[in-house]
TrEMBL record:
Residues in coiled coil: none
Function summary: Involved in protein export. Acts as a chaperone by maintaining the newly synthesized protein in an open conformation. Functions as a peptidyl-prolyl cis-trans isomerase.
Localization per Swiss-Prot or TrEMBL: Cytoplasm
Naturally occurring in which organism (per UniProt): Litoribacillus peritrichatus
Ranges of residues in domain PPIase FKBP-type: 161-249
Stated name of the protein: Trigger factor
């Protein structure tokens, strides 16, 4: 087998593979012999069909099948022979034979970049240092009470935080526009659900009152016909309601699975959940900074084929997340540009992390895997069932091991990185990166 490799650009390689004619002929003859044993042709007894007749009828098809299989098998032989590390599937094209019996093909593919992880000591990480205070727990309980709150109609002017029930009609240049009309619409004032000025204009209004609001749509509004447009809303307030927080009672505690229905146990359960959330948030913040630092310190070419594969995965995840799969929504219809930058970064991180794992011969620590599994299972009513399920599902357990291995990479980097402890409040610590 003759193999030649050409570097076309960056990570792309063009490999030409020539398969000896005798290898092809041997494979074709073996296939035809096997066919002759099984084929039934009128006028001939089973197994007694002359090879000349078998070749005439099935020779071309047998050769095509053999060539297809040989292209697949010899591709892997060739990359191993040339010590190449392909990234993604190749594009394989047959080459027109110079003479009868000869066959060759060209496989075009990308290879993984060669990375030697560096710059770990230049990575800066800020690790949140947080103490959960009594007022943090009280604030969390208020949030839970608001989630279970009800609305009670009142006979007074609407204030910020109240819910108003309204009819409204929007006009532009005296004409109604699409989407600018509704009846009996509930609106919480201060929720920023409407364009600027709409909710503010209803503060102080009472049930039965009509308000005319002269407003302007934001310049970056999604509907181009309305972006930056001056409009007028005629709003009729039909009811004003104030929020009634859920009471701290046995019924409320029961909803959150508190066994003895006491306020003390409820607060302890809230604190435990906050500690769990805080621990995960701190891990995520540190991990994000580490991964960003690895990308910044280890610039490299990224195989486009791997980025495209990641884009496809992200498309699938997006469709599943928003329930499009049940409606038969085609993930491919989502523009690749939506995911391009994030997919490229994910692949970049994956390449550097994989090399750190390889260089340091890291494997998932069994004790850490068990600890993570115990922590995950602790939030369920039957923790042991969750643990057993993972341990009896190799694929799920391997995913868990991958997470643990990634955490070990983070620990490895932190041992060399510049780490600064920063004291901050609970809400700031648990807030996702980049969220205002």
């Amino acid at each position: 087998m003759q193999v030649s490799v050409e570097t076309t650009s960056g990570l792309e390689r063009k490999m030409t593979v020539g398969i000896p004619s005798d290898r092809i002929d041997t494979e074709v003859n073996n296939r035809l012999k096997d066919t002759a044993k099984r084929v039934r042709i009128d006028g001939f007894r089973p197994g007694k069909v002359p090879m000349s007749e078998v070749k005439r009828r099935y020779g071309l098809g047998a050769r095509q099948e053999v060539l297809s299989e040989l292209m697949r098998s010899t591709y892997f032989e060739a990359v191993m022979q040339e010590k190449l590390n392909p990234a993604g599937a190749p594009s394989i094209e047959p080459v027109e034979a110079a003479s009868e019996g000869e066959f060759s093909y060209v496989a075009t593919f990308e290879v993984y970049p060669e990375i030697e992880p560096k710059g770990l000591e230049a990575i800066s990480v800020v690790r949140p240092n947080v103490e959960i205070k009594d007022e943090d727990v009280a604030e969390m309980i208020d949030i839970l009470r608001k989630q279970q709150a009800t609305w009670e109609e009142v006979d007074r002017a609407a204030a910020d935080g109240d819910q108003v029930t309204i009819d409204y009609v929007g006009t532009k240049d005296g004409e109604e526009f699409d989407g600018g009309k509704a009846e009996n619409a509930p609106l919480v004032l201060g929720s920023n659900s409407f364009i600027p000025g709409f909710e503010e204009g209803l503060v102080g209004a009472k049930a039965g009152e009509e308000k005319v609001l002269d407003l302007t749509f934001p310049e970056d509004y999604g509907n181009k016909d309305l972006a930056g447009a001056a409009v007028q809303f005629t709003v009729t307030v039909k009811a004003v309601s104030e929020q009634k927080l859920a009471e701290l009672n046995e019924e409320f505690y029961e909803r959150f699975g508190v066994q003895d229905n006491s306020e003390e146990s409820f607060r302890a359960e809230v604190l435990k959940n906050m500690e769990r959330e805080l621990s995960q948030a701190v891990k995520n913040k540190v991990k994000t900074q580490v991964m960003d630092g690895l990308v910044e310190q280890n610039e490299t070419d990224i195989p486009a084929s791997l980025v495209n594969e990641e884009i496809d995965r992200m498309r699938e995840q997006a469709v599943q997340q928003f329930g499009g799969g049940a409606q038969g929504f085609d993930p491919k219809s989502l523009p690749a540009e939506m995911f391009q930058d994030q997919a490229k970064k994910r692949v970049h991180v994956g390449l550097v992390v994989a090399e750190i794992i390889k260089t340091n011969e890291l494997t998932a620590d069994d004790e850490k895997v068990d600890a993570m599994l115990q922590e995950m299972a602790s939030v369920y009513q039957e923790p042991q069932q969750v643990i057993d399920w993972y341990k009896n599902n190799p694929e799920q357990l391997n995913q868990l091991k991958a997470v643990v291995l990634e955490e070990q990479v983070v620990e490895k980097v932190l041992a060399s990185a510049q780490v600064e402890e920063k004291t901050m409040g609970y809400q700031e610590a648990v807030k996702p990166e980049g969220q205002a």
